[in-house]
Amino acid sequence: MNIAAGKAVAESVRTTLGPRGMDKMLVTSSGDVIITNDGATILKQMDIEHPAAQMIVEVSESQEEEVGDGTTTAAVIAGQLLAKAEKLIEDDVHPTTIVEGYSEANQIAQEAITSHILNEPLDDKTLQKVATTSMTGKGTGDVSPSELSKIIVDAVKHVTKSEKVSRDDIHLQTRVGASSSATELVKGFILESERAHEHMPKSVSKGKVLILDMDLEIRDPEVDAEFTITSVDQLTAAFEAEETELRGYADTISKAGVNIVFCTEDIDDRVAGFLSDKDILAFEDVSSDDAKALSRATGAMRVATLHNLSNEDLGTVDSLEIQKFNDDELTFVEAGSKAEAVTVFLRGGTQHIVDELERAVSDGLDVVTAAVESGEVVPGAGVIEIGIASHVRSVAASIEGRKQLAVEAFADAVEVIPRTLAENAGLDQIDTLVDLRAANDSGRAGIIAKGESGELDDPVKHGILDPAAVKREAIDSATEAATMIIRIDDIIAAS
């Protein structure tokens, strides 16, 4: 029953695999609709109650968290490992023997992946191929994956130091209302926040930035106190003292040469007015995450007081411009090559297109990050899976006992990927698999989607490349999930 549940979940995403994969329409109980062929999104949104089936979902989540792509591959392989295990159990092979065989086969598979690593330099051209491969077949509107890949590689390179990618410094911002081809890279950050005062400037060139973690309001007394006012002069003096304090905030900021303020707390309306009089642009209630991103983009420190404000506390921008999109205002904070954070601004004609484009670009960013950090890429289009199956079978002959059957079953299970690619490309599964095995014995060939169906050719020649880390993680996580389910012999209701 557990195996059947796991197989059912894996089968639900199998048709989405590859450049010819189809989309799924997910409809929530409230009527919301999601259209995607992203395996992680599909499995996450599916209403799954069976605990064993939920483990397949966890496989995709683990894959997504570790390397960002290959979620469908991991789920499909896990499902096929379960299907092969079911037949072995019916033939009286003990589940523990199957688990041991799968674990050994996994180690052999990792060796096969290593043997397929390409010696190509990881230059911009190669990384663009990796990104394009990841996004091909996903909904990217009227912009081609190859065009998006240039933006993705630029973004990743901008936040890379010593082959370590600061992935958290790449942000995605989306807006409906233009074609996907209007997607662009902003070397800085895009803030969703309105000006503190309507008369403040809408654009600043070569500005100095202050990021404040304090209220620009009248300070509350530290102790409970009551003040007795007995004359108009005393009341006037109290108002003037307040005015002096609030005006002092604006004067201090102005004297420091600041013309852009991002405040994570509140700004009193009178302070906003004083700042506006000095042509200083200010934003209030900026979230902590946005403040962190702005700090990375502009180089400004987050300060909690205006006392002893120095030039080292301030950041700079090449330009800041507020643009209106329908009823929303977005603030484009650009710092050029100095920015340590970048934003990919995604456009699309409808919300469905924008959402799917965001998922595709996110996957592209993740695979390029994985390729840069590991320095390893392998051929795509099913070559790795054919290579794994061939290598595992050759080693299986030297394994004694019934465990050999589990190792051979592992090899058969991994071939579900090229079989699915062939099926989705309109090719005959059996004939294609036989031809692929023969072609890879003497050379290198994968399933290339071309025209109405597909053909067998060298994927490297067609620029179809995957990070080795994605393949390693997919095999690892699929094996772990399958062996965990196989070892379960009963479901017991817990208190």
List keywords for this structure.
GROEL, domain 2, 18 strands, GroEL, 7-stranded mixed beta sheet, 3-stranded mixed beta sheet, alpha/beta, 48% helix, 495 residues, GROEL, domain 1
Instruction: Just give the CATH class of the largest domain.
Output: Mainly Alpha
Please give the count of helices.
16
Quaternary form = single chain
Question: Rounded to an integer, what's the Rg over CA atoms?
Answer: 29 Å
What share of residues are in beta strands?
Answer: 15-25%
Instruction: Name the structural class.
Output: alpha/beta
What is the CATH superfamily of the largest domain? Answer: GroEL-like equatorial domain
The dominant shape is: elongated
Concise structural overview:
The chain is α/β, with parallel strands linked by helices and 495 residues long. It has helices at 2-14, 39-45, 51-66, 71-90, 95-115, 124-135, 145-158, 232-255, 269-277, 288-298, 351-374, 383-396, 403-414, 416-424, 429-442, 468-486, and strands at 24-27, 33-36, 160-161, 164-165, 170-176, 184-186, 188-191, 203-212, 260-263, 281-283, 302-303, 315-325, 328-334, 342-348, 377-379, 446-450, 453-457, 465-467.
Describe the structure.
Strand 16 and strand 17 form a beta hairpin. Helix 4 runs antiparallel to helix 13. Strands 7, 8, 9, 10, 11, 12 and 13 form a seven-stranded mixed sheet that branches. This protein has a three-stranded mixed sheet with strand order 5-14-6. A two-stranded antiparallel ribbon has the order 1-2. The protein has 495 residues and is an alpha/beta fold. It folds into three domains: 226 residues, GROEL, domain 1 (Orthogonal Bundle); 100 residues, GROEL, domain 2 (2-Layer Sandwich), CATH 3.30.260; 151 residues, GroEL (3-Layer(bba) Sandwich). The relative contact order is 0.19. The mean pLDDT is 86. Helices cover 48% and strands 17% of the residues. The chain is elongated. It is built from 16 helices and 18 strands.
